[in-house]
Amino acid sequence: MYDYSLDQRFQNLKPFEEKIWLSSPTMHDAEFEYMAEAYRTNWMSTVGGNIDETERLLAEYVGVKSAVALSCGTASLHLAIRLAGEKLYGVRRAEIGTLAGHKVFCSDMTFDATVNPVAYEGGEAVFIDSEYETWNMDPLALKKAFERYPETRLVVLAHLYGTPGKIDEIKNICKEHGALLVEDAAESLGASYKGRQTGSFGDFGIVSFNGNKIITGSSGGAFLSNRESDARKIRKWSTQSREAAPWYQHEELGYNYRMSNVIAGVVRGQMAYIDEHIAQKKAVYERYQAGLSDLPVDMNPVGTEGVSNYWLSCITIKPSAMCENVRSERGKLYCHRKGKTCPDEILDVLAHFHIEGRPLWKPMHMQTLYRGNRFVGVNGQENENAFTDGDRQGSVGADLFERGLCLPSDIKMTERQQDAVIEIIHRCFE
Ligand SMILES: *Cc1c(COP(=O)(O)O)cnc(C)c1O
């Protein structure tokens, strides 16, 4: 491994003593009070006032009729996707999965938690390329996917890094094809599109309270819907599907996915601070935007019709300023050139200075796990099959992944610390 402490470019710079995080939890004391209340009153379970209040506050904030507090965003997606499958294809035997034999159009560039639940339910994820304006699902590619696989009835859309995708276009395409839409707003809680919150547009939405999200419960997630009957069903499924009977009567497959009342205390306390966190994240983004404006890089899009929650600040390096950088499945190799750098070099340098960054999400169509799945982009040839898909060449997702990275976006980072991060990035290009 190359030793950056000997590199001339970084000579008079010292690593931070305390690590600068990508995005770590920010607590305010109210959380502790609600947790302590759960303890004092012995509601140390998956029922209690914190859960009820979290659900009420969240539904009100997002502007949906119902929210169901669950153990994590992934569990919320699983139940949302299972419910969509049941509505579309009817009740199946548990071991088969509600989506068995059916295709589902999914965001390609995202965290794999967005798409794994499709596999849990036996469905076949077909990955849809991103567009450059929001980095989210390209409506043109989605349209093309429906032309190829017109029998498909379910779309799973993620809003990356807090920036809403092209929701109107995608909703219209879904409507035209009678498809349901599941909205993964795990990263975008508090972001809005034409005046409405993300998570409220799909037939079902989900959010996450994972430790690095805009607000957190340390873990946790929620299912969102405008139908109380959906919320009732998800509440039942998430608590092992008990029927109203004198004994443990089970007529449907159940899960243990409910949020704990202790975790809900943390989320309840954090709910009051969403807008403050967003304002601080926006300030971090704008400082990067100003501080990096003289470099051959672009900031991640924050939307034209949408308003981002600025969860993570990211950059892409302009193609002309990329040094050689090759990646295998698990390894990387790059070669610095004057005036050029690459995401892997910047990430190594940041790590050397005790700063956490992260590559952009590696697109699902590039993952070993999903190599056999279909992929649809707008630039591809019409000839496709699962293993020799022409669309994979020149995909937007692969290009963003190659040239992009997430910068430390912690709201507890001081201006002085952020200035140092900006200086280090400048030196990478020297
Ligand atoms: C964090 C995240 C999830 C999963 O949330 P968990 O609460 O960690 O299970 C799903 N989708 C996206 C896009 C995420 O970033």
Condensed summary:
The chain is 32% helix and 15% strand. It has helices spanning 30-40, 49-62, 73-89, 116-120, 139-148, 167-176, 228-237, 261-271, 274-291, 343-352, 396-403, 415-428; strands at residues 66-70, 103-107, 124-128, 154-158, 180-184, 192-193, 196-197, 204-208, 221-225, 297-299, 306-307, 314-317, 324-327, 332-335, 358-359, 375-376, 404-406. Helix 1 (30-40) packs antiparallel against helix 8 (261-271), helix 2 (49-62) runs parallel beside helix 8 (261-271) and helix 9 packs parallel to helix 12 (415-428).
Strand order of the largest sheet: 1-9-8-5-4-2-3-16
Number of strands: 17
- What are the segments in which pLDDT stays under 50 over at least 5 consecutive residues? 381-389
| Total count of helical runs of at least 4 residues | 12
Hey, roughly how much beta strand do the residues contain? Answer: 5-15%
Describe this structure in words.
The chain is an alpha/beta fold and 430 residues long. 32% of the residues lie in helices and 15% in strands. It has 12 helices and 17 strands. It has helices at residues 30-40, 49-62, 73-89, 116-120, 139-148, 167-176, 228-237, 261-271, 274-291, 343-352, 396-403, 415-428, and strands spanning 66-70, 103-107, 124-128, 154-158, 180-184, 192-193, 196-197, 204-208, 221-225, 297-299, 306-307, 314-317, 324-327, 332-335, 358-359, 375-376, 404-406. Helix 1 runs antiparallel to helix 8 (261-271) and helix 2 runs parallel beside helix 8 (261-271). The two termini are 20 Å apart. Bound molecules: pyridoxal-5'-phosphate. Pyridoxal-5'-phosphate is lined by residues 72-74, 110-111, 113-114, 158, 184, 186-187, 208, 210, 221.
